[in-house]
Amino acid sequence: MTHDSDGMTSANDGGAVDWDAQAAVFDEQPDHGLRDPAVRRAWAHRLRAWLPRRAGDVLDLGCGTGSLSLLAAEQGHRVTGVDLSPAMVRLARQKPAGRDAVFLVGDAAAPPIGERRFDAVLVRHVLWTLPDPARVLRHWCGLLRPGGRLVLVEGVWGSVTPVGIPAERLTALLAPVAGRVRVERLSDDASLWGGEVTDERYALVVPVP
């Protein structure tokens, strides 16, 4: 396995995945659709710890079918979800049922939100697909209001040709734009994934001044 200068495997090509084609089966993964009540509760518990305690504006980038967006909205936040796949966004828009969540088609690296700023930016399993993560991280931090926080859920998946970004490398990329970074290891919490996992999964919670 070789690595590029951003600490991600050279085999990474998340942008080449046809996410529209994946949309119909996306929610079949336990941590995507959150259809299992225990998995849903586990993610809800984590979001309460990661997102601001007071209701605020949350930007969910690479939101997929909107499962985490809706959990955040259920906790009182006003959520804007952005995904590059129109098919994913269509499915997300079918879920809100009156909750305070809107979904937009757009690039997570340059979301179509104009001059809006947010209390939290939530990104799960997206950064590893992007070609210039350092630049993207700077941009995401710039979307936050003073005192906001960036929440990143990432990992390294697979044993033969792993893809992803290690926590140590992502922490280093954040050093120029953030101070204290909290790392939470998630691999040993089977309730999040619907079963045991052996690869690296983690969350970084990054307060931005």
What does this structure look like?
The protein has helices at residues 19-26, 30-33, 37-50, 67-74, 86-93, 133-142, 167-174, and strands at 57-61, 78-83, 101-105, 118-124, 144-157, 163-164, 182-185, 200-207. It starts with 18 loop residues before the first helix and ends with a strand. Helix content is 29%, strand content 24%. Strands 1, 2, 3, 4, 5, 6, 7 and 8 form an eight-stranded mixed sheet that branches. Helix 1 (19-26) packs parallel to helix 5. Mean pLDDT is 90; it is low at 1-14. By secondary structure, the chain is of the alpha/beta class. Strand 1, helix 4 (67-74) and strand 2 (78-83) form a beta-alpha-beta unit.
Order of helices and strands: HHHEHEHEEHEEHEE
**Roughly how many Å is the radius of gyration?**
16 Å
DSSP strand count? 8
Could you describe the largest sheet, including whether it forms a barrel? 8 strands, mixed
Q: What is the 3D shape? A: globular
SS-derived structural category: alpha/beta
User: What is the count of helical runs?
Assistant: 7
Quaternary structure: single chain
Distance between the termini: 37 Å
Poorly predicted tracts of residues: 1-14
Proportion of beta-strand residues: 15-25%
Mean pLDDT, all residues: 90
Binned, the helix content reads: 25-40%
Task: Produce the secondary structure layout.
Blueprint: H1 19-26, H2 30-33, H3 37-50, E1 57-61, H4 67-74, E2 78-83, H5 86-93, E3 101-105, E4 118-124, H6 133-142, E5 144-157, E6 163-164, H7 167-174, E7 182-185, E8 200-207
Parallel strand pairs: 1-2, 1-4, 2-3, 4-5
Antiparallel strand pairs: 5-6, 5-8, 7-8
